[in-house]
Amino acid sequence: MHDVVIVGAGPVGLFLACELGLAGCSVLVLEREPEPGSPWRAEPLGLRGLFATSVEAFHRRGMLDQLLAASGVHGDSGTTPDADEPSPPRSVGHFAGMVLDPAKVDVAALPFRLPGPAPEMVMTSLETVEAVLSGRAAKLGVEIRRGAAVSAVAQDGGSVRLRAGEHEYAARWAVGCDGGRSTVRGLAGFDFVGTEPQFTGYVMLATLADPGKLSPGIHLTPTGMYIRMREGGHIGMMDFDGGAFDRSRQPTRDHLQTVLRRVSGTDVTLSDVRLASSFTDRAKQATTYRRGRVLLAGDAAHIHSPVGGQGLNTGIGDAVNLGWKLAATVHGHAPDGLLDTYTRERHPVGASVLDWTRAQAAAMRPDPHGRAVQALLRDLLATRDGTTYVFSKTSGASGRYELGDDHPLVGRNAPDFRLEDGTCLGDLMRDGQGVALDFSTGRRLYGPAAGWASRLRYAAGPARNDLGLGAVLVRPDGIVAWAGERAPDRAAFGRAAHQWFGSPEG
């Protein structure tokens, strides 16, 4: 029997598998596709943006350099360690098709940020992310079985049984990371609720007979929206038809050409379509991310339109949050209720992302109401405050879990504190443990934290910028669990460590 069976070998399932493998759990990943490669996962169709918190997750597990190299990002893309403040982002993306100016981001207004090696965004492909994570998972002893489509899920008080083909697998826990049409979600009886679509979106690799009729870039039009990449024949479009085109049907060249002509307002001709698919802005979410011994993460837990590129990043956030909590539960040292904090912390994040994409769909509607909202948003997004607000939302800079502590840093993603000897927080998190940073002592000391030696690392010494703090307790997912001022309260630290890491050893 495995400790955990994960269904789905996409980025979310693989990242979760790596987290569990790093913690010493026995992990099996079941993937229905027989081979890892697919044109939909390679560039250009599989191109995705990893935002700040996701990039930082790779940095904290020692995978950032490999990810950057595999993504064709060369040189130092982050901020130099001796910089006084983080570099402005090189790209901010768009909101509802309205491209934002990165120069308008007020970096100083973003809370608790310090320079670090992780760039604000990395453009990569699903194929690249999966290759990096698959290699990492193999080194950690994770088993991946492909061509294994799950057809049954049953659980009792102590285990979960899954059937795939002729084989049955047993585990103490199971996690569905199998996408928006999750088999695990349905078989395990999760409720999945939300709103129906307003548009049908299309993505294709095509050749234009008259490419001069479609300008590259993102274009909001009186009848919809279209995107044309400069290279590779990658075209996307949105048709506000109420989601009438069923994804189960394969769009034909004639259908795609009709829609493209309508939304672009041109008589452009598609001479050839190599690949095409459709999607909608249906926005739904599981009412809970756990039922007994079955959990959900990524698109299996929440679906929405891909506008704004939030899906992959939200899913990686799910995996990072769940991994250490599930591992602690497997090993028997989790404090009471720790695993339940997964839904409590991540469900509001998913709900917020659904609303974020709903707001963009509403603003893109090709009617007088949508155009009025667009005009208002263009004025707001042209301001420094407006652009900074959008960036803070998409990058995760404004994200905060409610952990019952009023300190403004608690519940936030930890800054990459750098001690005077050059060691940064990210370096200390490679093994997946929590970190207790003590800036209040002049001694430099690294080692296990007394009482939590197998779960918590201790690092002491002055920091180059301690943000006015004396000590910080960081969870394995990089979230600040407790922060003390110049003279930290040791008893308060102990209570916080007990809350998140369980009873002291011995």
Would you write up a description of this structure?
It is a single chain. The protein has 506 residues and is of the alpha+beta class. It has three domains: 2-78 and 117-192 and 284-362, 3-Layer(bba) Sandwich (FAD/NAD(P)-binding domain), CATH 3.50.50; 200-280, Alpha-Beta Plaits (2-Layer Sandwich); 425-501, Glutaredoxin (3-Layer(aba) Sandwich), CATH 3.40.30. 29% of the residues lie in helices and 25% in strands. The protein has twelve helices and 25 strands. The protein has helices spanning 11-22, 52-60, 64-70, 126-139, 183-187, 253-264, 311-331, 340-363, 368-381, 384-395, 425-428, 490-501; strands spanning 2-7, 27-31, 47-51, 94-95, 98-99, 121-125, 143-146, 150-155, 160-164, 167-176, 192-195, 200-208, 217-221, 224-228, 234-239, 270-280, 283-286, 290-291, 294-296, 302-303, 434-438, 445-448, 456-460, 471-474, 480-484. 47% of the residues are buried.
